[in-house]
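Lecture 7 notes. Example A: sequence first, then its structure tokens.
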Amino acid sequence: MTLPNIVAATAAVAWSAVAHAEVVDGSAFAAGFIHPLRGLDHVLVMLTVGIWSVLAGGRALWAWPTVFVSTMLVGFVAATAGVQLPWVGTAISASIVMLGLLVALAVRAPLWAGAAIIGLFAFFHGHAHGTEVTSVNLLGYGVGFALATAVLHVAGIAAGMVAEGSSGRLAVRALGALTLVGGLACFGGLA
């Protein structure tokens, strides 16, 4: 499978998830599920966590996405409880650039170091979700965006595995480079 086919397949997975969530439009769950799928920043980070997990292999394949979802929920709860954080937008843009760079350079971090990096960025992403929520049903909204995040991680893992299997690490690193460009676009206000 070629790199353009991988990107197209990943986009199709994300789009089908959006279309499915819109069937239950009006619910807090649907609003939470759709939210991360509508922002390039969220999509890029969540896919890239999955891709970086493939590069690391072993326990990172399940541990890093789990850390992201868990810590993102902690950030969400903190925001809904009124905890203020500076530089949330900057941290989110930095997460895209940093994760894209880690994948593009094929950095092999120890399990704990990758989890710490991912957890830090996830906290900011969760905080952003918590400050943007307009639903009164925080539980439904939180479950929705946590599930969408997991779906995007799985799509990233699938894209990483397909890229690695068909073209080796070079294709996986190219996905990281694309994420890096997307992150720079977010910093520049282009995305």
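Example B, a different protein, same format:
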Amino acid sequence: MDNAFKELLCHRRSIRKYTGEVIPEEMLELVVKTGLMSPRGRNLPTVELVVVKDKSSLEFLSGCRPHGPGMLAGADVAIVVLGKPEVSDVCIEDCCAAMTVMHLMADSLGLGSCWVQIRNRESQVEDKTAEDVVKEHLGVPAEYNVEAILSLGMPADRPAGKCYDDVDMAMVHREKF
């Protein structure tokens, strides 16, 4: 049995500190394509991505919420995941699948990444959500939802991974709750 995927899951961690080194374009393209290849409900085109490399935009996005997105200021790239709810009622799930596979691909390439939740989060701007702030800054049309942002960078450090032996199986119910 090949345990490469198991090892990837054990190794993957959210990385919030980056070296400042530029991510090779080939690696970025692999992460982006992976997100676009992710599973989708009825295989509908519900997910679009905005790749942000501009340092001033990364700095701006790092303040789109009061807590959590600060690592974007030090990231080399941010990938903003947009959903199209008029296309499918499961676009949120589709966006989550895209985020997950990009997160895993980034780790498999030796990149650091971190999921920044945007949907249903407050901003630091009165009467605006984090989604409103991101949409305005990036020019995202009204019919799209901003679900999340994936920060990407070369990891400055890497916390220890998790082990399958540490999984709490008491959270698993069989046949019935």
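Note on Example B: Helices lie at 4-11, 25-36, 55-61, 91-108, 130-138. The chain has five helices and four strands.
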